[in-house]
Description:
Elements: H1 2-30, E1 33-38, H2 46-62, E2 67-72, H3 83-88, E3 94-98, H4 121-134, H5 136-139, E4 145-151, E5 156-160, H6 167-170, E6 174-176, H7 181-188, E7 192-194, H8 198-207, E8 212-216, H9 217-222, E9 231-234, E10 242-247, H10 248-253, H11 256-266, H12 269-273, H13 278-290, E11 294-297, H14 300-323, H15 328-341
Parallel strand pairs: 1-2, 1-3, 6-7, 6-8, 9-11
Antiparallel strand pairs: 3-10, 4-10, 5-8, 5-9
Helix pairs in contact: 2-11, 4-15, 7-14
Amino acid sequence: MRRVFAIFLAVVFTAALFSAAGVWARESEGGNMHIKFSTWHPPASREVKTVWIPMLNELKKRSNGRITYTLYAGGALGSGPEHFDIVRRGLSDMGYFTATWTPGRFPLADTLSLATWVDGKDVAAKIGNELYEKDQGMRKEFEGVKVLELNGCIQAFIWTKKPARTMEDLKGLKIRSPGGHQTNYIKALGAEPVFMPLGEVYMAMETGTIDGIVTCSPLVLAYKLHEVAKHGVMATFGCVTEGVVMNLKAWDKTPEDLKLIILEVVGNPFAITGGLNRKSYQEMITEIKEKGVEIYELPKAEEKRWFARFQEETRKWAADLDSKGLASKQTVELYNHIAEQYGVSCEAFPPEWHK
């Protein structure tokens, strides 16, 4: 009799669990959520106007209003280098961060910032997302957050106050670097890298504290650097490794059906919104030229000299990380393979590494 009663209690308890799970699932499916989204981009920038606001509105639209948001742009929640931890600690639920601004923290992810000809963030995100999915070592660098999208940004050029068309012209110039490989590239060309917040670059160039900057075209326009840097050289320096991440607790609380919408939209916000894609890139270059900036295209012989220096930096960087137990050469080879599939050329890839 006791055994029958015990079985009866077990059945009732199990049924209650399944019932509770069913209620939780229905609530999860039908719940709403409010996303606090943070980015270091200035409120009036192309990134905010053509990517982040349209992306957040698309989340709201596809969820029939169940996803709402508050946007924190610029330094509202902290400086640019702090944005990964702003999300990780939960000050915001979702946000855009730049890995390259925290040297040594995401070593394998720096592969995405190698000197590569990428003229659209939509393409950069496709490459970055595929590398993240396939490279287990790189995935470990982002434990503690939910990675929604990863990219290597749009190719950066060097922008200077005075014309600098050869390595000899660059010798001794002080050039603001975003960090990572770009710092090594600047050194390799004979210039002196200087790191400072983007918001300080305009004044530094105006006063002569620095002679130029390595950055991408959207940021030239966002920070009005075209007013102080009237000369650009069209030779890719790569850019920085960036992406959209979500706080793990916020992700875990997200209703399951809304997770699917977030993955669809935020997985490549540039493709979804059309912001900062290849067409936008050409428009930005045209706009910069119209603002009086001369953009110089390197002759092939000089370009080859620059890129040979970049390739040597890749060899040294990979050897250093490999000596520390990180399979960086393997990651770079995988990156180059993925990039080539999208018609993208990595100029910093040592030619002898081709398999």
